[in-house]
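Why predict the complex rather than its parts? Because the way molecules touch one another can change local conformation, and only a joint prediction can capture that. The input here totals 1084 residues.
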Amino acid sequence: MNVCKVGIVTKFNNQNAIEAGKKIAEFYRSKNVKVFSVNNLDVIGVTTVSPEEVSKLDLDLVFSVGGDGTTLRTFRMLPKSTPVFSVNIGGTKRILAEVAGDCNIKAQLEAILNGNCFFDSRIRIQARVANQVFGPALNDILIMRTNLTRTPVFRICFLNETLSFRMDGIIVATPTGSTGHSLSLGGPIIHEQLNCLMILPIAPVQRIPCMIIQPQDISVSSTHGTKIVIDGQEIYDANAESSIIISRYEHDGKFMRLHKRGIRQIAQLGF
Amino acid sequence: MNVCKVGIVTKFNNQNAIEAGKKIAEFYRSKNVKVFSVNNLDVIGVTTVSPEEVSKLDLDLVFSVGGDGTTLRTFRMLPKSTPVFSVNIGGTKRILAEVAGDCNIKAQLEAILNGNCFFDSRIRIQARVANQVFGPALNDILIMRTNLTRTPVFRICFLNETLSFRMDGIIVATPTGSTGHSLSLGGPIIHEQLNCLMILPIAPVQRIPCMIIQPQDISVSSTHGTKIVIDGQEIYDANAESSIIISRYEHDGKFMRLHKRGIRQIAQLGF
Amino acid sequence: MNVCKVGIVTKFNNQNAIEAGKKIAEFYRSKNVKVFSVNNLDVIGVTTVSPEEVSKLDLDLVFSVGGDGTTLRTFRMLPKSTPVFSVNIGGTKRILAEVAGDCNIKAQLEAILNGNCFFDSRIRIQARVANQVFGPALNDILIMRTNLTRTPVFRICFLNETLSFRMDGIIVATPTGSTGHSLSLGGPIIHEQLNCLMILPIAPVQRIPCMIIQPQDISVSSTHGTKIVIDGQEIYDANAESSIIISRYEHDGKFMRLHKRGIRQIAQLGF
Amino acid sequence: MNVCKVGIVTKFNNQNAIEAGKKIAEFYRSKNVKVFSVNNLDVIGVTTVSPEEVSKLDLDLVFSVGGDGTTLRTFRMLPKSTPVFSVNIGGTKRILAEVAGDCNIKAQLEAILNGNCFFDSRIRIQARVANQVFGPALNDILIMRTNLTRTPVFRICFLNETLSFRMDGIIVATPTGSTGHSLSLGGPIIHEQLNCLMILPIAPVQRIPCMIIQPQDISVSSTHGTKIVIDGQEIYDANAESSIIISRYEHDGKFMRLHKRGIRQIAQLGF
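Output of the joint prediction:
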């Protein structure tokens, strides 16, 4: 893999992340690689860019320096399957990260340079309402009632069948997202390489279980207005009865990894 | 029991409830009992009053004619332990109701008149934030995060101890409320005569179980702003870090019942 | 598909199943197809065989006539991917069945004869302890503590990692089995076409979630003796510390179906 | 409280427990208090007795030295409300213990001698089948299917109503037991002072919730034979259709405590 253009995304307002970002930037600058950073790193030869510009730069590799939130944000900047190397700084769960920021970053960067690394692809999903598209999400898309005094009926269509449940909301999660919000809501952990989606009802009146299906278009509508939340980070509104289509995003998220791990997420959760 | 003043609360916009309310009004008018109604019943001699006035009328008996929502609303109009007789019209679960509206209401009214009835008391709870008091709630008080992109840490204090959990929200339910929203969220069913409260975490990151404790002051605060929802019907705001005290309300809710039933709620849920 | 040899497995001690079996036998005999039955059907030209013989007959199609239990039993008689057509008689859940026994069976048989049918393949699993092999199971393999006064520690190895949980037992289920015992234990429903296995802890002290992984060898051992239960129907013993290997069985179970259904199991469960 | 006769129950095969038991025995012998021990402590003046004899000695105070299992066993030796002081040695959860064995036991014993202690009463339950009585149990009574290839229908009667659920088993737990096996099975935590019982279905086909009721006779019968397990330690058999009556035991279990704690069990569980 030939790396000519590198991007760096650092956690908001976190000096340690900036410091780690600087080291990465200096390493690549010393190899004459072009470096673009979303935060100002104050390193000579590094171009500061907006998140919107990142998506257009056709980068070869992007470093996410922060917690899992930063990694999720980084992936949403990347419409294609640009590789992301995730360095944990200040994250608590660090389920998504490859290395901790206080490791010897330089050794990791050398390993990448020498090709001692591999790709770890993850399916992503998006939501479509009328002609708007939200996402892609690496973890999950939450559809939640807006009005706490109404329990809507959600209609969920997939595979030519329609299910109707009265409940507070619904979460559709990827295997990557199965250790996130859906786990707190009682869902299973799904191995990150499986090719499936989880549909998890939230507070269903009829005590409906979680369902796991192949990636496909899932249409959700509700008798009342809802909020659509992408990866727990971006919020959009949907009207009552409007059709929200959740579908697999065409370009997977691609992690760059150094070490194979059997059950990365489970090990990281400490079970 | 001497009944001199009767109140009637009918379901919003429901003609069947109005019709049943009329029958009740006519029955009591024919006995020269004073009758007050929250909806206009168009019966001679019946005074239409506002919900606020109901609380001041010192009624002897109030009829709730509608679904469980109407019963909950009726109880919130009654600051004292005024007896409520609940007639189900148009409700689906009708867990709280004594009789169905299409029963022979007149026979039921005669039974009440003849004293063939008994009281069924239920603990109620209220929420206090600064100098505002919300409630009383017969079923539950929900405290829910406002911002769907933040998972707050909730601190819960009772019995001189403090627990801290990162989660979406918390519900405190009475035994009466245990067949409502908390059941959908995975909580147990509690016999309606037990003297206890349920504290149920919503989507806790650490998979915390439900806790059941004696009625007492429970202080809840959150690192982010929350909504306080009373019986799933009234919504109030609480700021981040403000202390929300949930406590037993001094006057129980009092149902008037005709028939003893062993496990009223469970039977009604159809298990 | 050329059908020359047909097998029939009918529910134990069920006259309705025998009657339906007779009709099927007579239909195929009238077409000069060889028919073998596990129960004596009293039809001229039908050979009664033992379950062990069924596995060696190289049948083209087998009818399972009974409930889901009969279907599970039928599949265990078939070491290869012999097609099974499942007719429901006397079953309650009938999740696995294609048609009800009181339907017009003859019309169904004509449809099969005319090729208006398709195959629906399901992964199966087996358990291996030392040099013994148990199964194959279409639904699930349960490993349960034998001694109710001891809570064993189970060690579960897959993907080169080992997890240790103190608990009562463990169930490994296929997607087909996800609507069975594992659903009662709190597991998710998995679409029957997905290529994965569910590992569900039973009464884990540490409140471990369900895990969903690719089909692969899963090694389970326990600090105390256990029972191994195949499809809820056959029981074997395993000693403390002995290694139980659960793996995908090399030949899938193959249903013959007439009608495509989107989410067969969910529809059947009545959610 | 005047202590004239002290009993000591130490954990099986645990030298540390024996050592701690010795210290307790020597302390009380130096005060001329009579001391009886279930294990031979090799202390002059201490009488070794059988568990059966303990129940008849009319002791003033009994020390349980070991884990939670030892404490449960100690309480079953005591048909009356004899106070138990629980010293944790070698236990992992130590939810029931007052002090750790490596604390300054002598200081604790002085505190007891000086009356700086109080009682903490807990309801207990027993099971009755025909004319046999099992228990009392401090934690829970489990009724579990014997045959792993049959899912029995359990009929549960209380308050003049009968519920029927198809499932693997049922656990009836006291508030004290709510942090034990029932927690692993998904039950709530109940404050130890509440006067109630938990009925928790195990793997119910219909996904029945936990029920919490007043202490009362609960009759359980099953369509198939079951095992009755008392506090996870003693096992008895019950035939199909035989009526198992679980009821509150007439004498509560009584802990002697030094320190008030708000939510003893929850704190101990580390939530």
